[in-house]
């Protein structure tokens, strides 16, 4: 039972039961509160949240944005500063007065602009105030980065013809970062924001536009989700066919300088980036692990050519290195396959812009939607959440035509629950080209199934969950797991309740439920206060009216969680 598990483990809490309500739950002897909600002012010149309008359009880039996701906290000259993503929008909530007669609720340039301003990244100073953690309004660190913020392109693809557009013939300057999903932190104190489903922002005013192979591989077509192309031609692929090549990257932001220009690093490859987990190789080179969240896409690793010296700015190291894709073998071993012009038959810029096609060319293993990667700080191993894959079965293929047979770390057809793969690099060196792998957990429902869909032995009726997604290690070497799955609590998902955050012990395999989100929400994004006594957790797209009262729209928020006795929780 779960009580015995708590007593025998390193977990400093009694695991909680599954929940189905519209609230947040944490263990006994812990408390939580809201740090910031979508629409809360970051600057005193922003209007207070206005439910009737879904927030004031004129100051949408002066408030905390929508759909909080990956985040990291930085201690800068004594201030605590959080950088946090705003992945996408909830159009019908953000534009409550928009007539829904067309396919899109976006019916004017003002609507599209408001949505552009609500997405991207927030940088904000926070402090532990009289009634819990709060944003320091008007702090000089506060900043909103949106779909219109100027940034630069770095690395081998920058300035090449593939990156040149109507507005930017140089191919080196781009506006905006799109669909910022997971995150990462560099060893030199900057933030990495990761562009995921950027395809949804592009469309064509010419419905007859011919969809290229490159567009098709990334899901870019004539139909967009947000109708931006109706109001801004750079999102119109029939007018500016190279603009989509300038999105789908890892973007570096300096949280210590609100005037700094973000950099999109093309050496790390273009795909639907989940997050970026950085670690140092034995010889000092920089290693970045990255997932591409799509059915049958790949797991990637970047290794810099240069070495990083403690105390230096390593940004230039992300401009020059080798990108590889993972191949997993049935015998529990695997290797990193370098993407080079020789091996892929593609020129360098083409290879980075169309990294998925390069991965197919070298025989990468198709995965069950690689979400977050987390690196254990106290053992030479890394983990990737493979969230689910409704289409994995014999004869199925990904968009590039690569087989999705059930095999290796993706063993189940019609994988509705997901799993977490772990790899240990050869010699304990993340720069090594081979590794051993196993599954840390295979999620499942042991109350419904007594076969492989019941999950691995560390899944019990007391801790079951589906669709692992966000992951972070705490400094004590525990793996925190956040879910983004089916929260119907019915059928194959009966007993799992709402999306949640659990913690796993890499040494024993034990997993315990720590937090549950409101129904309708995904729990995503996790970071800690400088002294590790507070965990900040993101609640994305909640249902009901959370965290407000009846009649208010639901508002994605970052919450704080801490122990009543003030001891560290990470
Ligand atoms: Fe934005 Fe794959 O999660
Ligand atoms: Ca995610
Ligand atoms: Ca997900
Ligand atoms: Ca999400």
Automatic annotation (TrEMBL):
Segments for region (Disordered): 393-412
Top-rank lineage group of the source organism: Bacteria
This protein's name: Putative phosphatase
Organism encoding this protein: Wenxinia marina DSM 24838
